[in-house]
Design brief:
By secondary structure, the chain is an alpha+beta fold. It has helices at residues 2-23, 33-38, 57-68, 72-91, 94-106; strands at residues 111-114, 130-134, 137-141, 155-161, 170-176. The chain has a three-stranded mixed β-sheet, with helices on one face.
Amino acid sequence: ANEFTQTEVAKKTAEGYAIYAQTGVAPFCFGMWEQMAELGYAGIRVPEEYGGMGMGMVEEMLVLEEIGKVNTSVAGTIDAHNLGMNTILHSGSEEQRKKYLTAAAQGTLVCAAAVSDPAGSSNFEEWSTTVVQDGGDYVLNGTKFFVTNSDAADLYAVFTQATEPGHGPLDCYLVERDSPGLSTGFLEVFGRAGTN
């Protein structure tokens, strides 16, 4: 990660900030998503059986630390992708793992985790997103914000207040980009150009 960071990440960061200075918007992951995926960074902790590197959290943090020395937005993009993906890895069904993890680990599917609610990130009891079961489907209504990767994501892990007592404070629903009613917007966060 160190060699890649010192050469490619530094170069692409300079190019991305030049674009940002002209347009006000930096390219997603500063145009490095495919390179990150080729190096395996999109699936650091995903087991090899699902196409990942099969490493642990320490290795992931070391990679993110190296990248973050040059560009925190790129490190944050990978971290947000991993948060959405790790939700599937640790809490998803085998069917969901097979459907999403390989593509996510290879970077052909970008993940996002929709956690932050207008009521606050950890103020679960006051979260406003509602969930109603409709036959075999679930209908989610509400707003999430500060969702890193939102405009680039193909899959969102949307966290809501638990709908059934005894299962902890949160539920998580996987929402694909083309789901009816899903919309994303751009919110510029100071110092985080390139994350969307």
